[in-house]
Structure formats: C-alpha cells, structure tokens
C-alpha cells in the first residue's frame, strides 16, 4: 500500500541562519497506509491510528543540503511540523504559509491553502484562499509558528460576537 500519490513539488526561497537567501524544494505526496503511527506536533508522543489512512508527507531540501521529512494524516499538521523544523534550524521559508496574517483555518486543514486573517472580519467559504507555498515578498511578514498562532488567537477574539 505504500505508493506515492498526488505528488506535488514547489520551488521556494528561504533565509538561512545568516539571513542569506537560499533555494529550496518542497515535495508533497500521500500514501495510503494501514495503521500509521504519527507523532503529535504538540505532545511529541506517537499515536497509532487503526485502519487505512491517507498520510501526507512533506519533504524539504535546500541548496545547503539541509533536509526534513514530515508526515501526518492532516496536511495542516504535516505543514506545521515542517514549519517548526525549519524554524528550529533558523531557516525562514519565504512563503504565505509562514506569514503572520495567514492561517490554515479549520475548513482548510486538509488542503494546501491558507487565508489572510483581518482583525474584526470573519472568513467563510467565499474568502479568497492563498497557496501556502506562494512566495511572501515582505520578509517582515514572516513569523515564527508561535507568533502566527498568537495572531490567530487574537483574530479569533476579534470576531467574537460578530454575526455569521
């Protein structure tokens, strides 16, 4: 059952620990797997799912020979694992998925899309989506995982009580 499906590749730019621009390739694919074991992004504990699941793999390779491979049954989690690994190595991916104002809201968690979140404005299915691997031209918008999550939680507070 381990055959690569839905293969996609993205060429991106990053900033390394010396703030030099480097090239990287992101490869994404899925495999149907029986009883996959996935490490939780927050607790770091492995969990074995029972049954057949489509597992998303995301591979990062850059021009400095740094590479990472993440996997999860949710694209959202696989992406954020990669985001965290690059951050831990002082690599900043210059992509929309790492921009402070963009987040993979609940109805996008199994896609490769994000939405720009504006304080005080709800999002819905008509809100434009942005590919997470699209280039972010403003380096100042690139945030850590924690900064992006904090922005998301501030946004959630800003829409409390707003009509749907």
Topology:
Layout: E1 5-15, E2 21-34, E3 37-39, E4 46-48, E5 52-62, E6 67-72, H1 75-88, E7 92-93, E8 102-103, E9 113-116, E10 130-131, H2 145-158
Antiparallel strand pairs: 1-2, 1-7, 2-5, 3-4, 5-6, 8-9, 9-10
Percent of residues in helices:
10-25%
Query: How many individual helices?
Result: 2
Mean pLDDT: 95
Main sheet strand line-up: 6-5-2-1-7
Kindly give the count of domains: 1
**Rg, Cα atoms, Å:** 16 Å
Report the uncertain regions: none
Strand content: 35-45%
Report on the architecture of this protein.
- By secondary structure, the chain is of the alpha+beta class.
- The chain has one domain.
- Helices cover 17% and strands 35% of the residues.
- The chain contains 2 helices and 10 strands, in the order E-E-E-E-E-E-H-E-E-E-E-H.
- The strands form 3 sheets. A 5-stranded antiparallel beta sheet has the order 6-5-2-1-7, covered by helices on one side. Strands 8-9-10 form a 3-stranded antiparallel beta sheet.
- A hairpin with a 4-residue loop joins strand 5 and strand 6.
- The protein is globular.
List keywords for this structure.
single chain, 164 residues, alpha+beta
Concise summary:
With 164 residues, this protein is α+β, with helices and mostly antiparallel strands. The protein is built from two helices and ten strands. It starts with a strand and ends in a 6-residue tail after the last helix.
């Amino acid at each position: 059952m381990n055959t690569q499906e839905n293969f996609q590749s993205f060429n991106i730019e990053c900033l390394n620990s010396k703030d030099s621009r480097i090239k990287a390739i992101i490869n994404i694919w899925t495999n149907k797997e029986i009883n996959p074991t996935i490490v939780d992004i927050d607790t770091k504990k492995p969990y074995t799912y029972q049954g057949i699941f489509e597992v998303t793999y995301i591979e990062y390779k850059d021009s400095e020979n740094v590479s990472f491979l993440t996997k999860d049954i949710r694209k959202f989690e696989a992406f954020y694992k990669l985001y965290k690994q690059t951050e831990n190595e002082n690599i900043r991916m210059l992509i929309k998925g790492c921009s402070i104002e963009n987040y993979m809201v609940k109805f996008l968690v199994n896609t490769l899309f994000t939405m720009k979140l504006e304080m005080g404005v709800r999002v819905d299915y008509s809100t434009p989506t942005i590919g997470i691997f699209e280039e972010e031209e403003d380096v100042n918008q690139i945030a850590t995982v924690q900064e992006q999550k904090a922005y998301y939680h501030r946004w959630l507070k800003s829409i409390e009580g707003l009509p749907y």
